[in-house]
Amino acid sequence: MAEDLVGRPVECGACENRFRITENVIIRGRKVYPGERNDRRLDFFQRVPIANAPSTDDFVHRYDDNMTDPSLFEPSTPQRIIAGVMGVSVMLLIGMFLIFGASRGGVLDGMVTPNRMVMAGFAGVLGTALLLYANPKVRKKVLRIGILCTVLLVSLPLFLREGSTPLGEGAAVKKIETPKKIEEAPELIELRSRIGTQPLEEEINRLKAEGSTRNAVGLWLRDLREQNRFLIRDYVLRVTGADPQSHYYPRGGGDFLMVVTGITTSMDELVELCKPLGQMVKVYSALPVVEIKVRNENFVQNSIEKLNNKADPDYYALNLVELNSIDLDRIEKAVKRLMESSPKILRTDITRRLIELLVVDEVDFKGEICSALAVWSQSPGPAGTIALNEAEKLVAKDIEVPNEMIALAVKEGIANVTGVLDKLWQKNPTNWESLYADVGPSAEPALLVHVGINDDGLRRSLVRILGKVGGSDSQQALESMRVTATEPELKILINNSLAAIRARTSQ
Fold first, then answer.
1. Where are the alpha helices (DSSP H) in 274-416?
2. Which of 93, 97, 185, 403 could form a disulfide with 101 if both were Cys (CB 3.0 to 4.6 A apart)?
């Protein structure tokens, strides 16, 4: 402290109190010079070697004071963090493969149990090594956890043994045990081994053990490109009603065995349904397997310019090809193009294909199909009847019915369309009023049943429809409604409808 401040008033920078410096407030102590304090903790902050440090040549100097190593507080480096994440990821990934990929058709299908154990052990050792590098401060604890995870991974293949038989060997081994079948058809044994029919046989035996009335069939798809696999699977499931568990087994060289399970379709019907996939090579009823040489060109869409060019001579033929495709997206686009085209050629073929698509449950664009049928259907009756049947199914399931479906039935004059239309009209009179009126005088008996209805919206709609289709019976009903009507708007509607009926009946 400077001597010139003694006796002068000053202000504290911390508490902002003012006081005068006197002998009572001055704290005097001995000055401390570097090296005078004997505190071992100060050795961690040294800049130069300590001159008087004890020699370590003959003995080890030990400090008894409880000191904490500063390295324990250092943050982990990015390399160690990445190594830890990779170690955990490796063990989790291999564990998921061993659990979910060990079944038939999985990524480990055909890998024997010892190989799976080797893969699991390698993953466990690698993951443990990475975790040890990532956690140098708790390596003993990490080592125990790593050993436990490795043991768990190695033990998984011992319990999850499905799909651990090499592909193509299981069936051959089973056949060797039955000499009678080998003597009867030795070429069949070779074919089973080549196709690898063990998954199909296992599925057939499972269905028999469960007492199921359904069966399983194999599709041996030759030269199938990877990008078309799911397209074919969806088509087969759609046309056969098979179990969604049906899946592929790769056989190398672009060949796949698809086990189609849970079907009631016969082999002959299945062959007809699979004709769009390519060439039917042979049917092996004893296996049972259908060999198909896939035509991948069938799954390639034609040129968009030609498909949209109505002046092109091949316009109708190309769009008919699109209708026969197994891809629902291509079919929907073709339907939309045809419903805006004039039916010049191929009218019968296109109409027949549209009717076939209308009854497919998986098709969700039935409204567009009905619009196309309204243009292409040549003889009234079949298309309207099927459209009405589909509408009745949707009504029974309480699913929204497309307007185009009822419009097709009304256009073709289907007799019992009034029953379905009346139910739809009662739920939404605004949406179905115009179609109800398009039915004509045949709708009058069904409409007169609702004369005493209390709903204001339905009552107004009923009056408007009766004015368009009603006769003398409707005139009497409207006269009685006018007597009891209290709303001015309703009275105006009734008067307009009565005038329309009188004008129509007087002609």
1. 304-308, 315-323, 328-338, 347-358, 366-376, 382-396, 403-411
2. 97
Digitized pLDDT (tens) for each residue of the chain, 507 residues in all:
567 777 788 888 777 788 788 877 777 776 666 666 666 666 655 555 555 555 555 555 554 455 555 555 667 788 888 988 998 998 999 888 888 877 766 777 778 888 888 988 998 999 999 999 888 888 889 899 999 999 998 888 888 877 777 655 444 444 434 333 334 457 778 888 888 889 999 999 999 999 989 999 999 999 999 889 999 999 999 889 899 989 899 988 889 999 999 999 888 899 998 988 989 999 998 889 999 999 988 888 888 898 999 988 899 999 999 998 889 999 999 999 999 999 988 999 999 999 999 998 888 899 999 999 999 998 888 899 999 999 999 999 999 999 999 999 999 988 889 999 999 999 999 999 999 999 999 999 999 999 888 888 999 999 999 999 988 899 999 998 888 888 889 889 999 999 999 988 876
CB atoms under 10 Å from CB of 358, counted, come to 20
Look up residue 408 and give its two tokens: 């097709």
Q: Where does 135-162 have alpha helices with state H?
A: 139-159
Residue ranges of domains in the chain = 77-159, 187-298, 304-505
pTM of this prediction?
0.59
Contact between 271 and 262 under an 8 Å Cβ cutoff? The reply is: no
What DSSP string describes 331-361? HHHHHHHHTTS---SSHHHHHHHHHHHHT-T
Other beta carbons within 10 Å of 303 = 11
Q: Looking at domain 304-505, which CATH architecture does it have?
A: Alpha Horseshoe (1.25)
CA 263 to chain centre: 23
